[in-house]
Design goal:
40% of the residues lie in helices and 20% in strands. It has 153 residues and is α+β, with helices and mostly antiparallel strands.
Amino acid sequence: MSGQLRDTASELAEVLWREHTVYRDRAGGVVIRGEHVQRWISLAPAGGRGEILVRAGRILDGGTTAPARSEAIVPLVAGTAELAATCRRLLAEAAVDAAPRVPGPARAGRSKASRRSAKPRRRRRHTSFSSWVVLFCVAGVVALYLHSAGFFG
């Protein structure tokens, strides 16, 4: 099964990406890395005979791989075209999961309240009531000191 899995992975890699690396992983499966698209695909024997577990995920900065974002079980006799279609679907799901959330007006389906909160607010300086009380107390203490020192004579 492992020889057939390696051959299938090599054919699949040619169909999916121009630039790729195919290698065996520790668990006996085969991994296809597409460094230029920052994605990986893993093919491993599944529980049933003649089935393979296909998993897809991202390649992080520095070359390490993130855990699989999506997976599917495909019959090995399905052929390269059906396997490639499944891999493209899984890669698309991994890309959607990895897409950064845009908190601006570019995001569709926002409510009025969130649109209102996204507008820049003009902040005015505001002196609160407690700040005025503290200022009057300080002024009173200064006036009391000046009165006791004889300045208001």
